[in-house]
Amino acid sequence: MLDETIITQAIIESYLNELIKNLKVDVIIAGAGPSGLVASKYLAEANLKTVIFERKLSIGGGMLGGGMMFNNIVVQDDAKRIMDEFNIKTQKYKENYYIADAIESVAKLTSKAIDAGVKIFNLISVEDVKIDSDFRVNGAVINWTSVEMAKLHVDPMTFESRCLVDTTGHDASVVNVVLKKIPNAKLNTPSGKIEGELSMNAEIGEKILLETTKEIYPGLYVAGMAANACSGGQRMGPIFGGMLLSGEKVAKIIIDKMK
Question: pTM (2 decimals)?
Answer without folding.
Answer: 0.98
